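Dear support,

We are seeing what looks like truncated structure output for some complexes. This example has two components. We would appreciate it if you could run it in full and send us the complete token output so we can diff it against ours.
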Amino acid sequence: MKRLLPELAAADLRHEWILTLCLVIAVAAVVAPLLVLLGLKYGTIATLRQQLVENPAYREIRPAQTQEYRRAWLDRLEDDPAVQFLVPTISPAASVIQARGADGRYHNLDLLPTAPGDPLLLAHGVPVPGPGACVLTAPAARRLGVERGDRLTLRATRRRKGRGEYGPATLEVAGVLPEAAGTLARVYAPLELVEAVERFKQGFGVPERGWPGGEPVPFASYQAVLVLSPKPLPPLQRNALLIESGLADIEPLDAQALARWLPFSLPSGWEAWALTVPRGHVSHAAWRAVKQKLRGRGAVVLPAVARFELMLEGETVTTYGLSLSATDARRLSRPATPWGGVRRAPDSRSLLQVLAPAAHAGESRLQARFQGRLPLEFPLRVVGAAEGPYAVVPVELAGWLQTARRRPVRFEAGAFRMETGGYRGFRLYTHTIDQVPALARRLEAEGVPVVAEIEAITRIQVLDRGLTRLFWLIAVLGIGGGVAVLVASLYASVERKRRDLAMLRLIGFSRGDLFLFPVFEGLMIAGGGLLTALGSYAALAAVINRVFAEEMPASGRICQLPAGHVAAAAALTLGVAVASALLAAWKATHIDPADAIRDE
Amino acid sequence: MVEPAPAAAPRLLHLQGCKVARAQGGSRFELEIPEFEVTPGAFIAVTGESGCGKSTLLDLLALVLRPEPGGRFLLLDGDEEVDVGALWAEDDEQALARLRRRRLGYVPQSGGLIPFLGVAANLYLPPRLNGQRDYRGRIHAQAERMGVAGLFDRMPASLSGGQRQRVAILRAMAHRPALILADEPTAAVDSERAHRILAQFHDLAREEGTAIVMVTHDRSLVAQGVDRHYGFEVDASDERHVRSRCVRRA
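Here is the complete output from our reference environment:
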């Protein structure tokens, strides 16, 4: 009984096979072009997306500006689930390196860091270089005239005391990136080499590579040069102090203003002047220049840092920086500081001294803490007592601490040490292109302006939406026509078979059975049309793909449909067929079994 | 509702004081059936001129025409007498369709074969619809006797008038109904052949114990072996309101 009705519907369709064939072709004529259109849309979008997916450049997020990035911040960013790869970069100015070409001449190249898993290299089938190796971009390899497997001599350059100095390194060319990977002449090398080059360029030595240079000792950042004079300074002379000293302002200091700088007051009749620069710091050299100009005038010239707060044994203590030589002390009728006068490059040990405030005067050592760019903790040797509830440290130490406010300075193994460079950017790739817009937005919100190929990604999304809309417009037209044909044919069929259907009712089929009769017929016609359409689609898609094969990338097919789309198209076709059969079905239920008996 | 069956032979079909009315193009036709009775296995003939209400009577018996309220209309369904009038009053289409499917067979004038099914499929349709099994051998044997066994693979359109009627008769019997309603089953064939077909029909029905109500305008067909004979008394004095009574003949 359950199989009876589909069998009857099938028998009817077979009996009227010419009509059935026409309807099947009509359905196929609607469905097949729509499938091809859908396949083209999907294939186009998929190919465009594939190009983006395959090219890691579209997954790259670059900082738009050079600014300093803390290691901790970069580590946190690297842990983001959207981030596939992250390597910090140094400042662009420090990343220029020279490479010797096949002609023996040196060429300037950009040096960029890489690390295991670098998508740019891996996507182009180039191995990530280990220590002692590098990868060149195509323009770089062309300019140098080298190829994979060659040995390449690089050198970091710097100028010191008017002479050029070089830090050489010989690397193996582990691979050459294709043109598509970039049009700039670049060298990709492990981060370690890049950092060494930066250190060398800043004047420091890199012992592990045998590159000469100084130790990364902090420099002092003073805030002012104080001129303490026993007699008035005429305006002309005051202005002369600013010439060629790098200083910009000179201001008289009254007793109260002077208390910001010095823990003592001046003998009567003395006047005090502060020489400053509006932004930036005052160097040791500036102090030397001013001191030189006032030579023989009995003035005391001191580099100075405004009093600041230092944690001593857990207590906040106002601290002055002061280094007073015996000569200057005599002029001011004051005791000299135990550590003597200002020195240009003191060692850390000689600076770790303090005149302790009264409360700590009895102790021999005080543990000090200072909050700079990095937290600093260091011991101070108590060499005397201050005259009040404040501490006095060498002004050079105060100057170093000023530097530590802006630059990463560490205290390790009894010595202060500058961390060189610092990261000025990063190379970042997400796992998928779809993660790019969100991550880029988040970085912007964190105050890191970035550059990413968001436009290319959104352009495809816009194109996809547009094509989808177009597809549905055409689909509605086509489906509308198909529905009209099916509705009319099924209705006419019921009308034509009125007596036969009435006979079925007389034999004992119910109204519900007769309702299903046109529905089954509609489904079968749609199913036949669908199969025909799929066959036509497959054939046409194969032809289209062959025709466009040359213009497409290896993995791309311009006409393709995933199984999900095919299933959806099938479901839609069958659903529409059922809907089209409803009018005929309704008509069929209204057939009176008595019609079978009437013979007119 | 159901009265105890009389001690005599049970009645397969019993109508008493039934009325049906039909309106057609402004005129009204009314058929009254004071008493109509069919016992199991009986051969009932209904004769009359065209327009006297033969087809109306058959529609009523075939459970496709609604009787006027009032009157009795009982049909035996197995051991149970079903009140058809009540089913109509309740509009219980499902029950009427089920009765039609199980208990009735129908032979229309022109055969009424389903044109898109082959002869065999036509014959197998009623038993399949009733969920019966093992009907093929029986139907084939009956077809042999009716001389149409060789036509099983043919489509109805390719059959002659006589062949078509024979197949129609076989199909009406295929699910072994209790009652076959035949509407001029031999109108389309010549008299000699009509007699032969009718005799075969009658024989098969008797063997199966199936009752037949046959409507015909050809009185000559009625002679042989008819158990009961009904005719019509028509009052056509008012053209716009024709009345007819179905009465028993000798």
